[in-house]
Structure to design on (335 residues):
């Protein structure tokens, strides 16, 4: 909570002038948001310090437990009478991890949306420090927005989840680029095909140049992932043609109740689809069949075309990993 610089205490080995000199050249530390007067270890990330408890960290993380079980060297840097541990994490990521461990309600309550950078921190540090519950909560939030099951794609693809409330407050389509990066780094392979599908809906500028998120982090597709995305777009376009094929076939359903009416409706929709809908939905192979219900066909025709459409949609889903050139990397579809 405070930005007050923390006066550095001399190391225990003050008698060694060379080391003291090295310390003098370091910047002043800022006190981080988490500071317990009864804490017994000070974590340092960038220039920020956090006074916390070894027991709390060890209880949640085998990595911290191992770190603290190693005997402390005699010349260990001390701050406020506590041993100081330098971590390579960003101070923002560490703040989120410690807030989650000490005051976790907000982080683990899946009715409370969190900003993307908090979820990203939970995933990154949950993986690094082997805090499984933190990692699991982050993955759950990501999957709400990038679903790994077809039944969770309802309607056209949107940034808001089609089922349930948003769990990431500032999630936008471009975050799919960040999800791909995180999924590769943390081996969350089930997120990759749907994240590439979401990415394929983006404008080419975002695909080529990347995206700076609200926390100022720049995310960009690797060259190989850009290639995967472009290959996927070609396949999605083909799938879309199959999905809408019935509009071009001259056949109504075998059990059509109003043949001339339905044929007329199909011709009308064909024109509307080509001029309006197709360009906007060209990569949306997973759009559900809700739009067919709006065509005002007779019931047998509606049922028939929904059945055909859903078959092609499910085929697109099964082929998603293949479309994005990762069938040998990802087990897909997930159970
Ligand atoms: Zn009909």
């Amino acid at each position: 909570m405070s930005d007050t610089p923390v006066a550095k205490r001399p190391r225990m080995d003050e008698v060694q002038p060379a080391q003291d000199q090295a310390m003098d050249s370091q910047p002043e530390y800022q006190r981080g948001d988490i500071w317990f007067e009864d804490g017994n270890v000070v974590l340092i990330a960038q220039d920020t310090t956090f006074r916390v408890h070894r027991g709390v960290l060890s209880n949640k993380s085998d990595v911290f437990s191992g770190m603290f079980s190693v005997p402390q060297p005699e010349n260990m840097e001390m701050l406020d009478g506590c041993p100081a541990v330098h971590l390579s994490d960003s101070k923002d990521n560490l703040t989120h991890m410690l807030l989650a461990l000490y005051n976790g309600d907000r982080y683990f309550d899946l009715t409370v949306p969190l900003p993307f950078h908090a979820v990203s921190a939970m995933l990154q540090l949950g993986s690094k420090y082997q805090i499984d519950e933190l990692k699991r909560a982050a993955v759950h939030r990501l999957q709400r927005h990038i679903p790994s099951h077809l039944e969770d794609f309802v309607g056209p693809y949107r940034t808001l989840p089609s089922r349930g409330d948003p769990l990431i407050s500032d999630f936008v389509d471009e975050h799919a680029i960040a999800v791909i990066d995180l999924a590769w780094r943390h081996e969350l392979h089930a997120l990759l095909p749907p994240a590439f599908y979401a990415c394929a809906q983006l404008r080419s500028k975002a695909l080529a140049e990347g995206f700076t998120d609200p926390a100022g982090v720049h995310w960009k597709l690797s060259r190989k992932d850009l290639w995967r995305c472009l290959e996927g777009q070609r396949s999605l376009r083909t799938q879309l043609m199959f999905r809408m094929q019935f509009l071009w076939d001259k056949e109504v359903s075998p059990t059509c109740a109003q043949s001339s009416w339905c044929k007329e409706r199909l011709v009308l929709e064909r024109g509307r689809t080509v001029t309006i809908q197709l360009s906007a939905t060209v990569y949306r192979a997973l759009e559900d069949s809700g739009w067919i219900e709006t065509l005002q066909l007779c019931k047998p025709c509606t049922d028939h075309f929904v059945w055909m459409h859903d078959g092609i949609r499910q085929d697109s889903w099964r082929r998603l990993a293949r479309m994005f050139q990762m069938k040998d990397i990802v087990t897909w579809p997930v159970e």
